[in-house]
Amino acid sequence: MRRILRWALWLVIVCLGVAGHGSVAAAERRPPNVVFIMADDLGWTDAAVFGSRYYETPNLDRLAAEGVRLTNYYVDPNCQPTRAVLMSGQYAPRTGVYTVASLARGEERDRKMRVPNNRNELPLNRVTVAAALKGAGYATALFGKWHLGVEGPRHPSQRGFDEAIVSAGRHVGFETDPQIDIPPGTYLADFLTDRALAFIEQHKDQPFFVCLHHFAVHVPLQAEPAMVERFEKKTPVGGHRDPVYAAMIASVDDSVGRVLAKLDALKLRDDTLVIFTSDNGGVGGYAAAGIRAMDITDNAPLRAGKGTLYEGGVRVPFVARWPRVVEPGGASAEPVAHVDLFPTLLELAGVTTRPSQPLDGVSFGPLLRDARAHLARDALYWHFPGYLEGDGPGNWRTTPAGAMRSGDWKLIEYFEDGRLELYDLKDDPGERRNLAATMPERAQAMRAKLQAWRTELHAAMPEAKPTVD
């Protein structure tokens, strides 16, 4: 009898121990709330935790200290295709959303190729990540920049979001869709945060998915005067020098802090995955890359900026916090991309029914559980079959091109002349040394893989203009 009692006591102790050590697994089994905060045009080094010594981001720094940084997180080179990818889980060739407005930018006489049409709205037959989560019992909301169509069924309120207020274009004196009376002098970042916090409060008793899509730090440069004055007193550091831009970053950072405080107040901290990122690289780094364009910030050590397929245009900051699941203070250099968000959230929410459309990404859930993990993926891809102008005729941020990253290697293929650029990002993150000529076999093998990917996705291609005799 005593032996049986001792065995029972040991079993209880073991079970309690397993339960204690299994808190991570228990937290993962509970579908998390998700708050996805995205800045607009915020560069890879535009946060203190990612290297800036001029901009101040104490709340982002805290978020990183309590979560994990993904230091090789990728998006598209401008805002609209990134948003289409995030919502659909599909690379740009599948949706036809490549840029804002038209791929035929600049002057006709300066373009060597005829470009395909660009779609400016997310196709209606695509299931959004919001719709998928809503179907799993989530309350869903989007506040801020949508940029994928607002007329009738294209409005985010008809694309899976229970509540959606769209606004972009100005930071002061802005308008919203649907129209809301805004007190004069209201700053957009503050307004959007107010609405997000109200939605979280209202839906605190059920899982929620909130997209807080700031228009900051996109031009026009408009900031609250008191914040501007604070940064006017600081000494610039490198290409980080503009006090108005710094004040706009501070407003976004304040928004992050308010979200974290609300989650703490509602005791939702441990049950909420908070993600912060940006939609494309910062507007800067052009002069150093030989491009004539306005430098507002600097993405160094990365090359160039928004509108290019160089690292400064497509690599952005990414921080995620989910207490009891994400180990605090971690960092991963594993390549991850916007196309991975949809499958990640499906996995974490326990959604087993996938949408009918193909999802091109993989879940980065393993990196949240262990920053040392690796993802089962061979490569990331980009396709941009058009032109983005710089300052002045014939000056381009990019001409038609495609790119891929496989491991530490990155290839860029320019369609006008077939030129290749090959970089070893581990040793050369600034893409200074083009190795295509010295490593032709690797360059051609990657080009073949990139071309095969375009064929598989039926990517629209530009065509050379006929020569005139």
Give your account of this protein's structure.
The protein has 469 residues and is of the alpha/beta class. Helices cover 29% and strands 16% of the residues. It is built from 13 helices and 19 strands. The chain has helices spanning 2-21, 23-29, 58-65, 79-88, 92-95, 129-135, 188-202, 225-232, 243-265, 311-314, 341-349, 365-369, 440-456; strands at 33-39, 68-70, 73-74, 113-114, 139-144, 163-166, 208-213, 272-278, 315-316, 318-321, 330-332, 336-337, 380-384, 388-389, 396-398, 401-406, 409-414, 420-424, 463-464. The strands form 5 sheets. It has an 8-stranded mixed sheet, with helices on both faces.
Tag the structure with descriptive keywords:
single chain, 469 residues, alpha/beta, eight-stranded mixed beta sheet, four-stranded antiparallel beta sheet, 29% helix, globular, disordered N terminus
Topology overview:
Blueprint (H helix, E strand, L loop, with lengths): L1 H20 L1 H7 L3 E7 L18 H8 L2 E3 L2 E2 L4 H10 L3 H4 L17 E2 L14 H7 L3 E6 L18 E4 L21 H15 L5 E6 L11 H8 L10 H23 L6 E7 L32 H4 E2 L1 E4 L8 E3 L3 E2 L3 H9 L15 H5 L10 E5 L3 E2 L6 E3 L2 E6 L2 E6 L5 E5 L15 H17 L6 E2 L5
Parallel strand pairs: 1-7, 1-8, 2-11, 3-12, 5-6, 5-7
Antiparallel strand pairs: 2-10, 3-9, 4-19, 8-10, 13-16, 14-15, 16-17, 17-18
Rg estimate, integer Å: 23 Å
Q: Can you tell me the overall shape?
A: globular
The tally of beta strands, per DSSP, is 19
Trace the largest sheet across and list its strands.
6-5-7-1-8-10-2-11
For the terminal residues, how far apart are their CA atoms? 104 Å
